Each structure stands twice: as structure tokens, then as C-alpha cells.
């Protein structure tokens, strides 16, 4: 996002411009990811979603969300949650071995798809998640910033984008802050951009499913008439493999 003179009142325009760039830049990759997810749904697979720190906001967006996929299993560890300890969550993301522990508990199959949300994409946890899944033959979708990764310390020897099957680039600048433009110190854009990418994927998925006659397992809001009844069958089907639905 660049402009000559930006005031606080222009911030909304900056965000809208950024999201437009994100949509245009990822058009082809979103089609590829929609095909991967649709194939997993058809095979009765599981969509696993993972992240650390503030990227866990994206994981929350994918799970048990009105209009979202019921076959999503969130992958996380309490140590990765900033609310359980800000400094310790950063240390956990940088610790080698935690990703393998978390994935062993979750289980992986080739007909599953693993999404890893990490804007910097350089710490051990997101990189090793992708490496473990790729080694198990499971497709990996990285939701990251290629530019931010290129400028961040390569703590894991590689980057998430380099390991993934498909990359969705949220185009977030290094440091995440966007305002003021000349010397950004606030207004992180990664959560907005990443959530936007997920919903762009959901839109494509619904359209592709309609074209091919696939019934998507989509949650209804529990706060609308008939929502609980509509979700009951989905809960029965997925609860045994997704313990977080309990």
C-alpha cells in the first residue's frame, strides 16, 4: 500500500486497496486451493487449520463458524496462545519439535488438507507443520506473506511458502503495521487480509460445489431458527474425529 499523503480518515481506503490487491494477486491460487478442499470434502477428509500467536485468530475464523465448513479441525497447543502467556507463546512458536507433537495427536491422511496461517512464515512451528504434513503426503496451503518472510530471520532454515503445496499471499508488509504509510507503527492488516482470503476461498468453494453437484457440510448459525437442528447431523458425523466439537 503506497500513497503520497495519508491521514487517519483515509485509512479505510488503504485497507480496501490492500484487499483488492490481495484478491487479484491470489485469483489463480484460490482456484487451486478450492479444488484441493473440494476433493477432500468428496473423500470425506478433514481440513486442518493451524497457526500460532495472532494467526490463531484465522484458525478461529475457520472453525465452527456460521456458513463455515463442518469438516474443519483446528490445530493448536495452549502454549501458542498469547492469552496464556505472551512471551511464552513467542518462545513456543520458535521451538523445534512442537509441530510434530501437535500433528501426531491430530493425525493426518493424504485426503486431508492442512492450512497453516503464518504471516512471517519463518518460525519452527509453522515451517515444521508444513514439512511434517508434506512428508505424510498431505497437501499444505500456506497463508503467509512472501515479502515479510523474505525479510524475516530464517529461524527454521526454510520458510512456510517454500514448503507449501499452494501459497495464498496476504501481501502484508514486514512488521504488519500499515499506518502512517511513511513510517508505519500501528494498524496491523494481517488478520483482515487473511480472513478475507479464507472467505474468498469459501465463495469459490460454494460455486465449485454447485457446479459439480457436491453437497458441502456447512454450519448454520446456532442463533437463528432451526440452526441447532440443521447442525445436529453434522455434529454426529464429525464429532468423533474433531474432538473440539464436543
From TrEMBL:
<dbReference type="InterPro" id="IPR001347">
    <property type="entry name" value="SIS_dom"/>
</dbReference>
<dbReference type="Pfam" id="PF13580">
    <property type="entry name" value="SIS_2"/>
</dbReference>
<dbReference type="InterPro" id="IPR035472">
    <property type="entry name" value="RpiR-like_SIS"/>
</dbReference>
<dbReference type="InterPro" id="IPR050099">
    <property type="entry name" value="SIS_GmhA/DiaA_subfam"/>
</dbReference>
<protein>
    <submittedName>
        <fullName>SIS domain-containing protein</fullName>
    </submittedName>
</protein>
<dbReference type="InterPro" id="IPR046348">
    <property type="entry name" value="SIS_dom_sf"/>
</dbReference>
<feature type="domain" description="SIS">
    <location>
        <begin position="33"/>
        <end position="211"/>
    </location>
</feature>
